[in-house]
Amino acid sequence: ARSVTAGEVFLYVQGIFDLFSSWDEALMSSRLDNRPIQNLLEITAQHIISNPVTLMGMDFTVIATRGTNYGELRNSVLGTNENTFDLVNSLKNDPKYEAVFDIDGYFSYTGFNNAPPMLCVNIKRSERTAFRLALFPGEVPLDSTFGFVLEHLAAFVAHALVTNTAVNRDSTHSMHQVFHNILNDPSADYVQVSQQLSTLGWHSAHSYRCILVEAGVLDAKN
């Protein structure tokens, strides 16, 4: 084994800085061009880590995915396909998965039954977790080394979510209109409804109560 010179060490370290700098510039360029979230995942795979990665809503809606078998489920709810029912069922029944709901920064999820281990970052809306960016085992071993990579990527994903929602949102996405459609439109697209509720901070993991208030004829004006 030959000795390594200080110059070689410097060049090696500089190469690492150059790699991450080019990744960051590519992410920034993607957002400036208003490219889709999928593009952010592809850029990260090309520059930094090629492991499978998925962005999902907390209702298990797949927003974007790369390197997984969930590609055909993008913009649909995990669990509507026989290939994903066991995965979602495992996540729903694992108290550890629910326990990390409000964690800030990256964290490791150890897996449960059919659910694999993941390195995750929660993405919040109105101070509530609405999405989760998950990195799965793959070519590179999962450890905290890539936690900061996922956090950096999550920041760009969060910007894309806010920007795209701001561009596309109109009055039909208000909470009142969403619930009006649920109650009155027999042909309502419930996958779309699920996505709208997730954006508004309503998730299937929450507990809800429905209150019916009825007023008598004499009290109608009140």
Structural overview:
The chain has 222 residues and is α+β, with helices and mostly antiparallel strands. Helices cover 42% and strands 14% of the residues. It has seven helices and five strands. It has helices spanning 6-32, 37-47, 85-92, 95-99, 147-168, 175-184, 190-199, and strands at residues 53-57, 62-66, 106-109, 118-125, 128-135. A five-stranded antiparallel sheet has the order 2-1-5-4-3. A hairpin with an 8-residue loop joins strand 3 and strand 4 (118-125). Helix 1 (6-32) runs antiparallel to helix 2 and helix 2 (37-47) packs antiparallel against helix 5 (147-168). The protein is elongated, with a radius of gyration of 21 Å. Mean pLDDT is 79; it is low at 165-172.
Task: Tag the structure with descriptive keywords.
5 strands, 222 residues, 14% strand, alpha+beta
Task: Please outline what is shown here.
This protein has about 220 residues and is of the alpha+beta class.
Q: Structural class, from secondary structure content?
A: alpha+beta
Q: Ranges with pLDDT <50 over ≥5 residues?
A: 165-172
| Total number of strands | 5
User: Whole-Å distance between the termini?
Assistant: 89 Å
**Over all CA atoms, what is the radius of gyration?**
21 Å
Tally of individual helices: 7
Order of helices and strands: HHEEHHEEEHHH
How is the largest sheet built, in terms of strand order? Answer: 2-1-5-4-3
Quote the average pLDDT.
Answer: 79
Report the major sheet: 5 strands, antiparallel
Oligomer: single chain
The portion of residues assigned to helices is 40-55%
Which percent range describes the beta-strand content? 5-15%
Apparent shape: elongated
